[in-house]
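How a chain folds remains the central question behind the approach discussed here. This step matters because it turns folding into a mapping between discrete strings. The sequence in question and its structure tokens are set out directly beneath this paragraph.
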Amino acid sequence: MNWAQRLLARVRGAVAPAQRTYFAGATGGRLVADWIFAPMVSANNELKVDLTRLRARCRELERNEPLAARYLALMADNVIGSQGIRCEPRVWDRQGNLDKVRTAQVAAQWLAWTARGSCMRDGRLSFTDALRLAVRTRARDGECFIRMVPTKDNPDGLALEFWDADLMNQIQDRQSSREANAIILGVEQDAAGRPVSYHVVSDYDRREPLTIDAGWMLHYYRLLRPHQVRGYPDFAPVMFSMRMLNGYREAELVAARTAAAKMGFLVTKDDGLGIGGEDPRVAVPLEAEAGVISQLPHNTEFQQWDPQHPTQAFGDFCASIATSIATGLNHSYPTLTGDMKGTSWSSGRLGVTGERDHYRAEQGLVIESICRPVFARWSQLALLRGTITLPPGATLDALWMPRGFPYVDPLKDMEANREALATFQTSYSQLAAEQGLDFEDLLIANRRDEQLAAVYGFTLVREVKTNVGVNTQVSEAVSAAVDAAAANGAARARIVA
């Protein structure tokens, strides 16, 4: 191309029409000039650049930001709760029938292993406490590592230990080849993308490289993009707003305290000698006391200082920013901040419903990432140690029951449950599971209560209603009422609390 052709190309480029876009979000121009166009990279490349800094800043927010500390406490309290995620082992014989005797033995042994002093390698946490710490760690750091270790310190031969994300050997990175697997952010993967091993360092000081087989390392994190091997902190979308809001509140607090502590100034009226013939550059304080009338020094006047902090818009502005933070964390504003002003039963119910869906999703992730793998490894080693035994041909599995949530509006919710039961839209077992309870355990407990009441000469009475409006008083066990509900098709019996 000669000089004339290059000049013509430049002229054509200068007068070429603007590039057309089909989506408003892809529009260019001065109005979106500050909208960063990030390069198209994988999630792992993003994490290579920012993960360490994100994790460090989230830990600082946990220490110093009330909203961050509140969110982490809500996650641990609502996902795990005080009683933890219940495990109900079940032993099935070769005919597929439940072996209640063996099931009770396995359940007792599991309960003993999960107690404090047994399941954790350092003996400081129970399994429930470990799950609470795991949920809190994942929400703050974006991920949680738990190593399963064979041990002789307990009869079952298994112990757990937390492995800090800071100990992951992130600089251990290589491309896949015919001779070796790929290593991404310390996670070695096979050709299918399955984790093979985790490359870590021994401790914070010596940092000797170690390799832990993936079969013995639990990696608990949320997968937000395909092929993502490490986790993002939950605070990533809102941490900048948290930091700015905290700084704004701090500035307003300092300004308000300064305004409350300082009333005004004494100002001289001319450039001559100041107060009492002293150098005017030297400040003379005037202390204020209740019930005292003070006389100003000669040739001075008092100027009041009233900076008006915080302003009237302070509360609304903070609430607006906190609302966006709560939204980014999948919580309602009243729950995250504790501010119940203007909250009604209906609005509170909508907010709580969304939060509980968030907690239930996290409960499922905890069960799949930690509970099931731990139970499988524990049962394997316990069978080898002989602390649990199974008859030939028997199989062992477990039913996991996370904590449930109480009714938001008990009267309306229970009435809705009655209607759902009457129209076969739910079951007693499902309703009990939503409360974190087992229906069979409820029946056993009710039977036990009736027997205990009979010992003391009392009869527990339950009211049973039918759709035709006939009310009767029955003293049979709850199980008999359930059988009646299934047998009576014309007038379906419903248990009424």
Q: What stands out?
A: The chain has three domains: 39-238+329-404, 239-286+307-328, 406-497. The longest strand covers residues 143-150.
